[in-house]
Specification:
By secondary structure, the chain is mainly beta. The protein has helices spanning 8-11, 64-68, and strands at 45-47, 72-79, 83-88, 95-99, 103-109, 115-123, 136-141, 147-153, 158-167, 170-183, 194-196, 202-206, 228-232, 258-261, 268-271, 278-282, 289-294, 303-304, 310-311, 314-315, 329-331, 340-345, 358-362, 367-373, 379-387, 391-396, 402-406, 410-416. Strands 1-25-24-23-22 form a 5-stranded antiparallel beta sheet. Strands 11-12-13-14-18 form a 5-stranded mixed beta sheet, with no helix packed on it. A 4-stranded antiparallel beta sheet has the order 2-28-27-26, with no helix packed on it.
Length: 417
């Protein structure tokens, strides 16, 4: 994150505050070598992209007016201490929520949709460091409900991804194992998000290592995990397996765990539960924020998102790339936004006409935004009047509910009228 406030060091989880903060240029500059012309305006707009969406035919009725007349409202559910996300454990009634300091607790929902928090069922506070952008940053659950995965920075500023066995939905600290770890050179751009796909593979996100403008040149370096989203098989305890569909499977030159690379700080990303498409919100530096959708069928390919040569669709360095994937949505900082918070694709039956619409936000303005890719490849976006201050993430509930998290403590449910 990049907010220039007194809370930068404490709560800069999205802004990527560097060791030497550069002045923010509110101007927009398109990358000269790309064909993407757009920026995401405050009002609804159409963005030209090259990719087509294989299920977009079902959403050709969507237009600016439909998005403007959306049915969504925000309702407060509970107030916590720096909430990071929640998971609904399959094959149980258990919903677990993680807080930045390392506590994981059960949420008990009342008939009116609000919730109360129980005592911690897992307490990692003695292991977790919240220095800089650190803390308990991600949690996910296996599709069979038998394992909970957690990502955090430890007291030595190493990123740790661990697993605990779930018994009737509850974690057993005595059955904890380390899946992987990564020593962080800086206290920012730690990434830390976790997602489990439909096949049970675990997606692990890491930033470029930190600092300003990728000083270690990790973004385009596939010999390490920095600036990448990994895809691994966590069900194999040695300590994990690598899916054969990974683009670099079997490589001796590149890390075969890498699924997507050329990222600055993929703070939040998600899998569309209907299509399997991967949506990535990658936090920009001083100019451009970006969101990229990678269709399911393209996840076996070499997907380079271009950082640090490109920041979104803007040329950031005077270097060339043979090829890289263009973002679907880009916006600059001229309207007060500063740091994208990637979201979720809406797939609930409560407002079926919005099925497939991507919901996201930005740390600085907290405004909930809607985006839809149409049949011709254009992207419609709309900025709603719904605001969550210091929005750090989105999570999906047991029945498709979407929860939005404010680092100030409030957890909201995005409901339909």
């Amino acid at each position: 994150m990049k907010v220039l406030t007194s809370t930068c060091l404490l709560v800069a989880l999205l802004l990527g505050c560097s060791e030497q903060l550069e002045s923010v240029d509110a101007g927009y500059e398109s990358g000269s070598s790309t064909s993407l012309l757009s920026k995401d305006e405050e009002s609804s707009t159409s963005i030209s992209v090259s990719e087509s969406n294989r299920d977009s035919e079902e959403r050709d009725y969507l237009d600016v007016e439909v998005l403007q007349n959306h049915p969504f409202t925000l309702t407060s559910v509970i107030s916590l201490d720096h909430p990071m996300g929640l998971v609904a454990v399959p094959e149980s009634d258990v919903v677990l929520v993680g807080e930045r300091d390392g506590r994981v607790s059960q949420l008990h929902f009342l008939d009116d949709g609000t919730a109360t928090k129980g005592d911690p069922v897992l307490d990692l506070r003695s292991e977790v460091s919240t220095l800089g952008e650190g803390g308990l940053l991600g949690l996910a659950v296996s599709n069979d409900g038998k394992e909970l995965y957690l990502s955090y920075t430890d007291q030595e500023m190493k990123s740790q991804v661990i697993s605990t066995v779930l018994n009737s939905g509850m974690p057993n600290i005595d059955e904890k194992r380390t899946i992987l770890s990564l020593e962080q050179p800086f206290s920012n751009h730690n990434g830390g998000h976790l997602v489990v796909d439909q096949k049970g593979m675990l997606l692990v996100g890491f930033g470029d290592g930190g600092g300003s403008d990728d000083p270690l040149n990790y973004g385009q370096d596939r010999s390490n995990w920095f600036g990448s989203i990994l895809r691994i098989n966590p069900s194999i305890e040695s300590p994990y397996g690598v899916p054969e569909l990974n683009p670099f499977f079997g490589s001796t030159e590149f890390k075969e765990e890498i699924l997507v690379w050329g990222l600055r700080n993929p703070w939040r990303y998600s899998i569309d539960s209907t299509t399997g498409d991967l949506w990535i919100g990658d936090v920009g530096q001083d100019h451009i924020e970006e969101i990229t959708r990678i269709p399911y069928e393209d996840l076996t390919e070499d997907n380079n998102l271009g950082w640090p040569i490109f920041e979104g669709d803007r040329k950031n360095r005077d270097e060339s790339l043979d090829t890289h994937r263009l973002p679907n949505i880009v916006y600059d900082h001229s309207d007060g936004r500063c740091s994208v918070t990637g979201g979720l694709v809406y797939n609930s039956d409560n407002a079926s006409e919005f099925s497939g619409v991507y919901i996201y936000s930005d740390w600085c303005d907290g405004r909930i935004r809607l985006a839809a890719i149409l049949q011709d490849g254009s992207v419609l976006t709309h900025a709603t009047d719904l605001i969550v201050p210091e929005v750090v993430g989105f999570s999906e509930g047991r029945n498709g509910q979407i929860y939005v998290f404010s680092l100030q403590g409030e957890v909201f449910e995005l409901k339909t009228e």
